Amino acid sequence: MEVLAVFLPLAAFLAVGAGSQRGLPDAGAAFLACVAVLASAAISTWLFLDIAIGGNDGRIVSLAPFIEVGVLRVDWTLRVDALSVTMMAVVTAVSAAVHIYAIGYMRGDPGFARFMAYLSLFTFAMLALVTADNLVQLFFGWEGVGLASYLLIGFYNAKPSANAAAIKAFVMNRVGDLGLVLAMCWAFAAFGTLSFDGIFAAAQSVPGWALNGMALLLLIGAAGKSAQLGLHTWLPDAMEGPTPVSALIHAATMVTAGVFLLARMSPLLAHAPEALMIVTALGAATAFVAATIALVQTDIKRVIAYSTMSQLGYMVLAIGVGAYGAAVFHLVTHAFFKALLFLGAGAVIHAMGGKQDMRRMGALRGKLPWTYALMWVGVLALAGVPPLAGYFSKDAILEAAFAGAWPAFAVGIAAAVMTAFYGARVMILTFHGSARWAEGAHPHEAPPVMLGPLWFLAAGAVVAGILFYDVLVGTGPNECDTLKGHVGNFISTGCLWRAERFWDGTLAQAMPEGAHHVAFWVKALPTAAALLGLGLAVWLYQTAGARAARVAVAAPWLYRLFLHKWYFDEAWRAAFLRPALRLGAAFAGPGDRGTIDRFGPDGAAAASHRGALSLSAAQSGVLSHYALTMVVALAALLAWTLLGG
Amino acid sequence: MTDFPLLTLLTFLPLLGAALIATIRGPAEDVARGARAMALFVGLCTLALAAFAWAAFDPAQPGFQFTERHAWFPALGLTYAMGVDGVSLPFILLTALLIPACVVASWRSITQRVREYMMAFLALETCMIGAFCALDTVLFYVFFEATLIPMFLIIGVWGGPRRVYAAYKFFLYTLAGSVLMLAALIALYALADGQTFIPALMAAPPALPLAVQCALFAGLFASFAVKMPLWPLHTWLPDAHVEAPTAGSVILAGVLLKMGGYGFLRLALPVLPEASAFLAPALFALGCVGIVWTSLIALTARDMKVLIAYSSVAHMGFVVIGLFSGTQEGLEGAVFQMVSHGLVSAALFLCVGVLYDRLHTREIARYGAIAGNMPRFAVLAMVFTLAAVGLPGTSGFVGEILVLLGAWAAAPVVAAVAGLGLILSVAYMLRLYNGVFFGPRENLDAACMRDLTKREAWVLGILAALILALGVQPALLTHVTGPAVAALLAQPG
What we know:
The structure holds 2 protein chains of 2 kinds.
Chain A: H1 2-20, H2 26-52, E1 59-69, E2 72-80, H3 82-105, H4 112-130, H5 135-153, H6 160-191, H7 196-202, H8 208-225, H9 234-237, H10 243-253, H11 256-264, H12 266-269, H13 273-296, H14 300-320, H15 324-351, H16 369-383, H17 389-404, H18 406-431, H19 448-473, H20 487-493, H21 499-503, H22 520-541, H23 546-554, H24 556-563, H25 568-599, H26 601-618, H27 623-644
Antiparallel strand pairs in A: 1-2
Helix pairs in contact in A: 1-2, 1-4, 2-3, 2-4, 3-4, 3-10, 3-15, 3-19, 4-5, 4-10, 5-6, 5-10, 6-8, 8-11, 8-13, 10-15, 11-14, 11-15, 13-14, 13-18, 13-24, 14-15, 14-17, 14-18, 15-16, 15-17, 15-19, 16-18, 16-19, 17-18, 17-19, 17-22, 18-22, 25-26
Chain B: H1 6-22, H2 28-56, E1 65-73, E2 78-84, H3 89-105, H4 114-133, H5 137-146, H6 148-158, H7 163-191, H8 198-203, H9 210-227, H10 236-243, H11 246-271, H12 273-300, H13 304-323, H14 328-359, H15 375-388, H16 395-410, H17 412-437, H18 444-447, H19 454-472, H20 475-489
Helix pairs in contact in B: 1-2, 1-4, 2-3, 2-4, 3-4, 3-11, 3-14, 4-5, 4-6, 5-7, 6-7, 7-9, 7-10, 9-11, 9-12, 10-13, 11-12, 11-13, 11-14, 12-13, 12-17, 13-14, 13-16, 13-17, 14-15, 14-16, 14-19, 14-20, 15-17, 15-19, 16-17, 16-19
């Protein structure tokens, strides 16, 4: 079963990819890719229910040996446990929605089949990542995801900006990858194995500083994929890809990989408390900075992109305070509402003929009523308004943060206010107010093939919180013990396993103990923050943005800082890119040519040439010169023989 | 099996082919056609023979196999000794595989002196296979240095506009190394009581003081480091690649560079173990500096061949780090990386040849947006690009990760610095790929190029299949190299 779930998308990639070179019609490509991913989604859901309700234990399916060198033993395996089936279900569900949506969005594009093939490759790589049983196979999926994102971000490859964004994504990710590779090296040196079970079993036998070191290297890896502050600059640029790609990257198949890695390694991280403090700090900083940037962007996709980064910050923060279950929970709920928001934004962009600037939108609610309504669901879920999905998961994270590190809680609350604010701002600028469309725009509602996935995702954004709260982070006794193995009973009683039984040691813990005993105001504050943010946005933007503009004028330097994204791109360019190119030129010119060649082969050649010239000068043809030379030489020879002998 | 001189046949079959080609007479057209066909035929026969050797080789059996030993210069104690083990056999197969690819790649692009060209390649094959088979230090030296002559001619006669400069630079570097290696081998001969039989030297490394070992090591290093090449002895390589014809670059990057690494593995490491361990930090330093230095240059290169040449130096930096890591993972990683790089760099140079044959320029900026008109080429080139950056699933990854695991065990900082190569390689390889295959349709002549011919597609397709197969099932190679490397590490000292 799990073999099919993982490899069907790969088969679809190969079939559609080969077909795209041989004139496979678009309908055929769409059919193959969608059927494969839908089947994969169905199986993944079944696997999830099997563990979540059936209470079956995880298992490890060995496929083939991979690398067997020295003491290193790595197999191609599929690890089916609580964490991987949760990820599989989310990844395939969102991916299926995106596949179907793309049929409508990409209709008529000359690269349609290629696009479908890449989507399937992306899905396969992510599935290979989450089902890995060792760090090497995880890295296979990890890099596969990077490759697929590079191909998809650069899908419109005639555009120089798309090419630049694609390369940037791959290179920035590679910086993180180096962290993961070095973590792998360290783990291998310390444990002699790279399989998860082997590492976790031996985790306590290794000194704490080494575990902290590994944890920090893992964090660098996670920061690259999950766009944490510092390695995040590729994520906003990634929207150069077609919008369905953005949805896939931001919701399911790429940026979640880093959080997944940290959750997967949580039995190791739990023994590295110092490193976890840095994880917390980085997550909180990311959540905050990204939210400030999202406040002022005018490109609809860019706002949502920074929102993703901010929410990823929450997830990493959750890891840092030991709320691993909450991190995964937020990952799940976020997947639904973020995919919804991106696909909704895609519908808007589609309607506006490719324009993404919200200053050229407004009053679209009459033209796209369904998109409008569904996007509000997404925004409210993102803001954390009860009882939508985001409320439950964000609450869980903030409670754990309060129990673990109150500064992170404070930062999280501030970011929550901003989250609600920029969410509402997007809705108001896009759908409310006056029409500011460019000449010749004829906005229209999206076709059913695009709206269908929106409905599905909106349903997820509404119920995912209530549905999965207990199983992912809930506490208390397992009153479902009697339901073992009966899916039917689940439907009749609506009961899932509680978190502890579900995770069953897959995560170090679902929630830190303290998180269950926080005061009422701590539980209520995130909701209040969300309402405050929504209210602020309405108040500032209701008057055609006049009040908002006054705020921007009142604090110009702050506005510029946010608008220019805290100048990270500029800083990186000055600190790394330009010096690297300058060094490269220096090594090539003054280095290789000017020094090595000059004193090496060219120098030798020139010296021997000079030597030859002076020797030939000695052949002057004048007899007396020769005679003199002979006499001197003979004398020298004689002296040497006499003295030496 | 022991009586049949398999390795001698394998070694000298190409030379025999070259002799046969020399006898072809007639109008220039017929000679050219006959030379091509004969070279391909002999190349394929050699490949079949090498494949047979691979199949008949028993990895579980320790020591050398298919050994032959005859007196050569009895007065000096020199013997004609041939034999293979798990670390030399892969290179023989690699050589036998790439020579037919070279012949096919030169099918249309070489029109002048075809007969001599094909003879040079076959002679080169004899020298290379001979060097990988030789079990006598002097015999090894003869084969090893003899490669210089055909390669010098290939660059100097069929090369580009600055071919004479490039050929002499190549010659100077190699000759300097060669003289020092000869001195070291003569000294070794004297110090080891006239022992030149490599297995004997491996089994009982001459007990020499560290200083003497280091001096001998320096002599061997001079030659092997030039061949690999190691920074700062690498500057001949970009010139040689740029001026060499496509097939010359293929065989240079594919096999000749590996002879340097092989030399370290066969002679320096087992015969001079203490010096190897003592000098390992210095070699790590050279490898690390080389990786960063040449990767940064590759980042700024405008000429495709320059870019790939510098990336080769960076990849060889990984090899030297693995070789001196003193761990099973690192050493096997180094061998794997050499074989992988042999396939990948050969394929990349063939790709440059595909482009050069069509547009007669290697400047990246003159191309762009050709993925549209050359979709099959775009897919294959993507595979090679990914292998060059070490993406898991390709052979490039296995070599790099093994080397890094080994390097970390030896010294974590080495792994960290070498790891920078992972980041930089993506930057320069994608700059190359995107520059050639993607981008706006500005260079119309490039956008009109025809996709791969059948001949090109077959050669590149086979290489891509091998690269992916080794990436998913590295055991195809490691089951042969593993026992040999383990035996090497288990040696005294």
